[in-house]
Design goal:
Helices cover about 25% and strands about 20% of the residues. It has helices spanning about 30-35, 60-65, 115-130, 230-240, 250-255, 285-295, 295-305, 335-345, 360-375, 390-400, 415-420, 435-445, 450-470; strands at about 40-45, 75, 80-85, 85-90, 100-105, 145-150, 155-160, 190-200, 200-205, 220-225, 245, 260-265, 270-275, 310, 350-360, 380-385, 405-410, 470-475, 480-485, 490, 505. α6 packs antiparallel against α8 and α7 (about 295-305) crosses α9 (about 360-375).
C-alpha cells in the first residue's frame, strides 16, 4: 500500500467555539498541550459497542480501537502475515490436527497478573460454546475437539480435521479467566490499557508500562466520538483532535496546512447491499439490472477524486491470492441492458427503492448520492434514508429491516472465510438474507479442504457465485485517507480494518 503526504490547501481555522455542540469535553486543550504531555486526540465517527468485551464485538469501529488493548496468541502484521504475540511459538502435528502453543514468558495482563495457559483455555472455550449472553461465537472453533493446559505455559488444541486457516483465528483476544468486568473495564495484554469511557463522547487509553513487546511511544490516547462529518472536520481544523482516519478527499482538501495525509486503503467491501429476501431484490434479474446500471468508476471519480479500488465481489485486493480481479468488470456499465432486465422482470417503468445509509459515514453518503443519479437513468427512483449509526446497526444490520444500504463490510481476521462465511444461508450475520445452495456447498467444501491451492479455488468460486447472482452491487475498496497533525508520524496500514497506535510518535 502506498503512503504519501499530500500538499494541502491552507484555510483559516475555525474558532474552537464552533465545536461547542459537538460533544467535545476538552475544547480548551491545545495541540501544544497534548504534545507536551506526549498525548494525542483521535477522532472517530461512531460510538463503540455497548460492551467493550472483545468477544462480544459486533462493530468494526470497536475492533479498530480495541486492537490496541487486546492481543491473541498470534497477531497480524502490516504485510499480511501472522506472528506470535501472547504465544512465543507453536508447532503443528504431522496430521495437521494438533496445535501446541508455548506462551511467551513474562506476559502480563493490564491488572498486573501473569498470563497462564488456563487463561488461554478459558478465552478459546468462551468463543467456542458462546454460553454467555452476547458472546459472538468463532465458527472456526467448532472444529476443536479438545483443548488442554498442559502446564502454565503450554496449551494444546486438537481439531476434528486439518485446517490451514486455523492459525488465523488465534488472533482471538486472550482474557484473564477470573475477571468479569470486561464489558465496562476491559483488560487485555496490548500496548495500551483502558482507562475510562464516557458514553457517546470519548474513550481514554494509556500506555501499558508492563507490555512484553516494543512499548508504545505515546503516553495517552483519547478517542473522541464525533459522528457528524462536518463537526469531525471542524475538530481537526480547530486543533481539538490530532488524527482522524477514513476521511474523504473533499474533507482532506479543507484541512489546512497543519496536517499531512497518509494514504492506504480501508480494507472494506463497499457495496450497495441488497436485501435478497425483499421485493424486488428477490429477483436475480433486478439485482443484475442494478449492477449494469451502476458505473463504479464514475462513483470513485466523482465522489472520491479517483481514490479507491473498484471491486466486483466480496473480496478486496489486500487479500492477494483470494482476490479475483476478473470479477471487477463482470458487469460493465450498460444502462440499456439494465432496462431490458428490468422489463423482463416485470418492471418496464422501473420502481421506487430506499437506500439506508449511516449518516455519520460521509463516504457512504457520497456514494449513495451518486447512485441515486445513476439509477435514475434506468427508471429507478432511489431515495436516501440517512440514519444514526446505532439505528443502522439495530434495524438494518441486526434486524434486517431494509431494502438496500450502502456500507463497507470488513474482515475480522486475515482469511477469505472472514469475508465470505457471512453469506451462507445459516450465518447469523447474513444481513442481506442471501440463500444459495451452491454457495453453501462450496463453503462446506472450502472449510474442509486442507490443500491451500484447492481451498483458494473454492473461495474464488464462492466469490464468482456472489457476482453472477448479483448478491450485491459491488463498488470499491475505499481509499483510507488519514489526517495526521504535523509533528506526528507512524501511521501503519494493515490488510484488515484496524488502527494501530503503538507506533504513532512525535518527531520532536
Amino acid at each position: 500500500m502506498k503512503k504519501r503526504a499530500l500538499a494541502l490547501i491552507a484555510l483559516v481555522c475555525l474558532a474552537c467555539a464552533v465545536l461547542s455542540g459537538c460533544g467535545d469535553s476538552s475544547t480548551d486543550e491545545t495541540p501544544e498541550a497534548r504534545a507536551a504531555a506526549n498525548a494525542i486526540a483521535v477522532g472517530i465517527a461512531q460510538d463503540l459497542d455497548d460492551s467493550l468485551d472483545p468477544h462480544k464485538t459486533v462493530k468494526a469501529g470497536t475492533r479498530e480501537v480495541m486492537f490496541n488493548v487486546f492481543e491473541g496468541l498470534m497477531k497480524p502484521t502490516p504485510d499480511g502475515d501472522l506472528i506470535p504475540a501472547v504465544a512465543e511459538s507453536y508447532t503443528v502435528s504431522d496430521d495437521h490436527k494438533t496445535y501446541t502453543f508455548t506462551l511467551r514468558e513474562g506476559v502480563q495482563f493490564h491488572n498486573g497478573e501473569p498470563v497462564t495457559a488456563e487463561d488461554v483455555v478459558y478465552s478459546i472455550q468462551r468463543c467456542t460454546a458462546a454460553t454467555e449472553t452476547g458472546i459472538v461465537p468463532v465458527e472456526a472453533f467448532s472444529a476443536i475437539t479438545d483443548i488442554q493446559a498442559v502446564d502454565e505455559r503450554t496449551v494444546t488444541i486438537t481439531l476434528s480435521e486439518p485446517s490451514n486457516e486455523f492459525i488465523s483465528y488465534m488472533t482471538t483476544a486472550i482474557l484473564p479467566a477470573d475477571y468479569d468486568q470486561q464489558d465496562t473495564a476491559p483488560i487485555g495484554t496490548g500496548p495500551f490499557k483502558f482507562v475510562s469511557r464516557t458514553a457517546q463522547d470519548s474513550i481514554v487509553l494509556e500506555k501499558f508500562d508492563g507490555y512484553w513487546g516494543t512499548p508504545a511511544s505515546l503516553d495517552k490516547v483519547t478517542f473522541k466520538i464525533i459522528e457528524n462529518a462536518d463537526s469531525l472536520l471542524m475538530s481537526l481544523q480547530s486543533g481539538a483532535i490530532d488524527l482522524c482516519a477514513h476521511l474523504t478527499s473533499t474533507q482532506v482538501a479543507q484541512l489546512g496546512e497543519d496536517f499531512n495525509v497518509a494514504e492506504g486503503t480501508m480494507n472494506l467491501v463497499q457495496a450497495l447491499y441488497l436485501n435478497n429476501a425483499e421485493e424486488p431484490f428477490d429477483d436475480v434479474r433486478v439485482r443484475q439490472a442494478l449492477c449494469y446500471a451502476v458505473d463504479k468508476q464514475q462513483i470513485i471519480d466523482l465522489a472520491f477524486d479517483g481514490y479507491g479500488s473498484p471491486i466486483g465481489s466480496s473480496m478486496y485486493p489486500a487479500f492477494g491470492k483470494y482476490f479475483d480481479e476478473s470479477l471487477t468488470d463482470y458487469y460493465t456499465y450498460d444502462p440499456d441492458r439494465a432496462r431490458a432486465l428490468l422489463a423482463e422482470a416485470g418492471y418496464p417503468d422501473g420502481f421506487d427503492m430506499t437506500i439506508t445509509v449511516p449518516s455519520n459515514y460521509q463516504p457512504h453518503v457520497d456514494t449513495a448520492t451518486v447512485l441515486v443519479e445513476q439509477l435514475k437513468a434506468v427508471g429507478i427512483n432511489a431515495t436516501i434514508l440517512p440514519v444514526e449509526w446505532e439505528s443502522w446497526v439495530d434495524e438494518t444490520y441486526t434486524g434486517r429491516q431494509f431494502q438496500s444500504t450502502v456500507v463497507g463490510v470488513d474482515a475480522s481476521n486475515m482469511t477469505a472465510r472472514a469475508l465470505l462465511e457471512r453469506f451462507t444461508s445459516t450465518a447469523g450475520d447474513n444481513f442481506i438474507n442471501y440463500n444459495n445452495a451452491d454457495y453453501d456447498q462450496l463453503f462446506t467444501q472450502a472449510v474442509a479442504t486442507y490443500d491451500d491451492a484447492a481451498q483458494t479455488e473454492l473461495y474464488k468460486q464462492m466469490e464468482r457465485n456472489l457476482t453472477e447472482n448479483a448478491a450485491n452491487v459491488y463498488i470499491q475498496d475505499l481509499a483510507d485517507l488519514v489526517a495526521v497533525r504535523k509533528g506526528l508520524e507512524g501511521v501503519t496500514f494493515y490488510p484488515i480494518y484496524v488502527l494501530d497506535l503503538a507506533g504513532i510518535h512525535y518527531t520532536a
